[in-house]
Amino acid sequence: MFFDIGPFELVTIVLLGVIVFGPDKLPKLIQDLTGMIRKLREFSDSAKADLRKELGPEFKDFEFEDLNPKTFVRKNLLENDSLGLKELRNSFDLKDELSTVTEAVSESGVTVRTAGDRTANGPVNGSDLLRKRVAADNPLSPGENPPFDADAT
């Protein structure tokens, strides 16, 4: 219906209103509520008119809905293609680029291993690879403690 409220929810709200405020006060409450909404709309429209008047004639085509980021992008980047973005977007094909890179790697003979690949000793474990790399970069012999710097701690 409106505001994502279905007919069942609307009936429930009306019944709760009748129960809480009573059938005598409910029409007056609805009148006051619609009057408040009308005054808020008038206030909003007058604020928009004042803002348009203050901005001057260079912003005569300004719409407040354009402040929504999705509307702004759609209007300025997608519809108005003065930057040539449509051609760029159409020329870029990720699947084609990925298949080109995959073919180049396979033709070069380089073996690319992933964590799921198996070796002669069993599956490749990421922590084992890290330990081997740290051991290769570490100048200390096994069992030797690293130097202690009291000022650094």
Please characterize this protein's 3D structure.
With 153 residues, the chain is mostly helical. The chain has 5 helices and 2 strands; from the N terminus they run ααααββα. It has a two-stranded antiparallel sheet with strand order 1-2. The relative contact order is 0.03. The mean pLDDT is 76.
Using brief descriptors, characterize the structure shown.
extended; single chain; transport; protein transport; mainly alpha; protein transmembrane transporter activity; membrane
Task: Explain briefly what this protein structure is.
The protein is mainly α and 153 residues long. It has helices at residues 7-55, 69-79, 85-91, 94-108, 126-137, and strands at residues 118-119, 122-123. It is 61% helix and 3% strand.
Question: How do the helices and strands line up, and which of them pair or pack?
Answer:
Layout: H1 7-55, H2 69-79, H3 85-91, H4 94-108, E1 118-119, E2 122-123, H5 126-137
Antiparallel strand pairs: 1-2
Query: How many helical stretches?
Result: 5
Low-confidence stretches: none
Q: Name the helicity range.
A: 55-70%
Strand order of the largest sheet: 1-2
Q: Please state the average pLDDT score.
A: 76
* Distance separating the two termini: 65 Å
What global shape is seen? extended
The ordered H/E elements are: HHHHEEH
CA-atom Rg in angstroms: 34 Å
Biggest sheet descriptor: 2 strands, antiparallel
